[in-house]
Design a protein that fits this description.
Elements: H1 3-23, H2 29-35, E1 42-46, H3 52-59, E2 63-67, H4 71-80, E3 85-87, E4 101-107, H5 115-125, E5 126-139, H6 144-157, E6 173-187, H7 189-197, H8 200-204, H9 207-223, E7 233-246
Parallel strand pairs: 1-2, 1-4, 2-3, 4-5
Antiparallel strand pairs: 5-7, 6-7
Bound molecules: S-adenosylmethionine (SAM).
Length: 247
């Protein structure tokens, strides 16, 4: 790739990571509780991104190692959490020794993995009896304005990958449980528009198409009867938490 183009791509990822850190939701305390059973000490946050979940794990006193393939995301994570050990790496080739952690967490990322390969890698790095916790934040699209917001994004994105996805962890795991945690993320109208722009498809859209998409989102956010005039908008989420034990 020509160096100017490569630099432009790198810059767009860095911008994407900044926006991601600023407006994407974190994870509710009740979900984090499920990821850290008593006695958990060493935790791998896999596909850690900008560190949204990592920060909550660190705040609970866990020793957290983060693994993340994207340079821009890792840079944000290190800026926010300078004491966390961060490695470049993927779920399919986790750069940690066998049986080295009590917990592996995966937030908003399992659907990107090669599932059988990632499951085997998670089983390899977990100690026997260790926990894998896989979470997704889904907007509650049963709320009418949230459904309309989602419809705009789905029109541009095609089918949403995460919704309806169930992790297939294989024979190495037992006690698979799903728990739903309901909560609200409060954003300004402007942040709600910017949130749409953090979707990966929106980051790589040609500038005119990206602007048109964000204009449609802004119109919804400023004119929908349930939103018009609000300065703080409660975005309802359901956090899906899947946990399973390493045999
Ligand atoms: C939607 S972000 C979630 C980041 C973070 N866990 C959070 O909750 O904010 C998805 C992350 O998965 C990472 N990712 C994508 N494919 C991956 C893979 N095969 N192995 C590890 N990480 C991957 C991306 O780089 C991105 O940072």
């Amino acid at each position: 790739m020509d160096p100017d183009l490569q630099a432009a791509h790198a810059a767009s990822f860095t911008h994407g990571a900044d926006e991601y850190a600023a407006v994407r939701p974190g994870y509710p305390g009740a979900a984090v509780d499920l990821l850290l059973p008593d006695g958990s000490q060493d935790v791998l946050d896999l596909a850690a991104g900008t560190g949204k979940l990592t920060a909550s794990l660190v705040a609970r006193g866990a020793r957290v190692v983060a693994v993340e393939p994207a340079d821009g995301m890792r840079a944000q994570l290190t800026a926010a959490l300078p004491d966390v050990e961060v490695h470049a790496g993927t779920a399919e080739a986790i750069p940690l020794p066998d049986a080295s952690v009590d917990v592996v967490t995966v937030a908003q990322a399992w659907h990107w993995f090669d599932e059988p390969v990632a499951s085997a890698e998670v089983a390899r790095v977990l100690r026997p009896g260790g926990l894998v916790g896989i979470v997704w934040n889904d907007r509650d699209e049963d709320v009418p304005w949230v459904g309309a917001y989602g419809a705009l994004l789905h029109d541009a994105a095609g089918p949403q990958l995460a919704r309806g996805t169930h992790p297939e962890l294989g024979e190495a795991f037992t006690d698979v449980l799903r728990t739903d945690v309901r909560w609200d993320h409060v954003l300004t109208p402007d942040e709600l528009v910017r949130l749409a722009g953090t979707r990966s498809y929106a980051i790589v859209l040609p500038p005119d198409e990206r602007a048109a998409l964000l204009d449609r989102v802004r119109t919804l956010v400023t004119t929908h009867p349930d939103l018009a005039g609000l300065t703080a908008i409660r975005v309802p989420y359901v956090t899906r938490v899947y946990t399973a034990r390493r045999r």
